[in-house]
Amino acid sequence: MQVNKRQVVDHLRGRGDEDQAQHAEATLPDTVDLEEHEDLLADLGVEPAALTRGAGSHDDGEGQQVQNTPG
Predict the structure, then answer these.
(1) Range ranked top by mean pLDDT from 9-18, 45-54, 56-65
(2) Where are the beta strands (DSSP E) in 15-64?
(3) Which of 14, 33, 37, 63 has the most CB atoms within 10 Å of its CB?
């Protein structure tokens, strides 16, 4: 499965990890393949399952899932 780099960065920022978010922006490709880039994600402390849980929603940074809306 593939996700956009922005999802990884937003996930890291959502948990308050700005340093890792900046590192992700600098090192990850625009499209992240969760299997191919598993080692890079592990280095960032990101579980691939966390990026696929609740597709169509995101964590608001306070542990609450928020439905993504187009726009």
Answers:
(1) 9-18
(2) 31-33, 57-59
(3) 37
